[in-house]
Amino acid sequence: MELIIARVKQGDMVAFNALIDEHKAMAFTLAIKLLKNREDAEEVTQDAFVKAYKNISQFEGKSKFSTWLYTIVYNTALTRLRKKQISMQELDSHTVENSVEASESSASWNTLRKDERSSYIQQALHRLVEEDQVVITLFYLNENSLVEICEITGWELSNVKVRLHRARKRLLAQLEKLLDTEVRSLL
Question: How far apart are CA 121 and CA 19, in angstroms?
Answer without folding.
Answer: 29
